[in-house]
């Protein structure tokens, strides 16, 4: 019934969702990724706990299996993620100094993953959620990252501060990613509550500029991933115009924009809420389709009963029976 969104003004447009081999209802996944979603990201299989469960020993079994699923269904594949303070392996938190992390542990992990998945990966979230929620306008990139309260889950001394005395751990991750990624793989800073004209979005933009200045990675290889975990009733989403303004700021720099984890909690899936959800989805996909620099769009979890937001949130494009909701038709109508 639904066509896939696969081309955009002559460019490849990658529109897809999450997948892992242990998800329920694999038959539905196969059908839906062959016909509607055409781009795959592993929901959990490429995270650090899954890919380096023993220090120094790379285990890409699930990550590679999700990439194989993509390839065998004619889909493209994006990587999520090489560095995050959550879902870390048990050997990591609290065990290493900042210089060990920056000099060895982080680059080794980034290399293992990016080399292992190969050059066809469209983009990698090189660092995930490194900017704080309490940031304000005018903060430097370092202040934006220091504002994040979660570094104790990674660093050795429990204060978290050694890792963020400077941004060298981020430069190390990006330099390694650039060395081992394919020639057109985009390298992203990925974060939530971003996309408009606000302090956190200003932080991710200044951070990507700072990364460029300190690594010399060309701007057209860099990207900002806007996760877009939204809540309709709380008004927790951006307008099409706000998104367009942000995307064009990045286009002026030559940086890519991507929507990487979109879902919209509506709580009750009555008709009014479903229409509201569809309208927001339409605005986001329009903003991306009409921007010259937005070529990837991922829905986080492909159907309501499999959503990390919970079934009751009704946050995805397909209902718990796997049937398309109004938002799915809204996307399909953009073809
Ligand atoms: C979530 C997954 O969907 C869950 O299955 C898992 O238990 C926790 O992580 N931001 C991210 C994603 O970058 O990796 C998170 O995914 C959702 C929030």
From TrEMBL:
Reaction catalysed by this enzyme: Endohydrolysis of (1->4)-beta-D-xylosidic linkages in xylans
Top enzyme class: hydrolase
A Gene Ontology biological process term: xylan catabolic process
GO cellular component annotations of the record: extracellular region
Keywords, sorted A to Z: Carbohydrate metabolism, Glycosidase, Hydrolase, Polysaccharide degradation, Signal, Xylan degradation
Domain GH10, chain residue ranges per copy: 1-334
Record EC number: 3.2.1.8
Top-level taxon of origin: Eukaryota
GO molecular function: cellulose binding; endo-1,4-beta-xylanase activity
Family: Belongs to the glycosyl hydrolase 10 (cellulase F) family.
Protein's name according to its UniProt entry: Beta-xylanase
Organism, scientific name: Mycena maculata
Entire protein: shown range: 43 to 377 of 471
